[in-house]
Hints:
The protein is mainly beta and 124 residues long. 3% of the residues lie in helices and 48% in strands. It has one helix at 105-108; strands at 3-6, 10-13, 18-25, 33-39, 46-51, 57-59, 67-72, 77-82, 91-98, 113-114, 118-123. Strands 2, 4, 5, 6, 9, 10 and 11 form a seven-stranded mixed beta sheet that branches. Strands 1-3-8-7 form a four-stranded antiparallel beta sheet, with no helix packed on it. A hairpin with a 6-residue loop joins strand 4 and strand 5 (46-51). The chain is globular.
Amino acid sequence: xxxxxxxxxxxAQVGGSLRLSCVPSGFxxxxxxxxxxxxxxxKEREWVASIDGAGQTTYLDSVKxxxxxxxxxxxxxxxxxxxxxxxxxxxxxxxxxxxxDTKGGLARSADLYWGQGTQVTVSS
Length: 124
């Protein structure tokens, strides 16, 4: 059974940093696509970042250079390091996973599994 358990989110001021973590289980951690999505109030959920089985990463343009997605293979953890935070980064963040052969990659996958979501608030 696929499960994605997320840590608590948090609050930060503009320019600050936060780290999100996710504990995946029930699937081959080293092979599946993993990533993060977010949803701001009144907006649709959007893809933020992905990491594949080889460790290659892709990012939403608006977070490039500020966010880093990473995996800890020993502890079986997924992270999203968020720096230089902006108010528009606020929202509920979701950890996500999909099989490696999912069509369209994680951002467009129809086979997504979701974490429970965690709130991130950036204030000025």
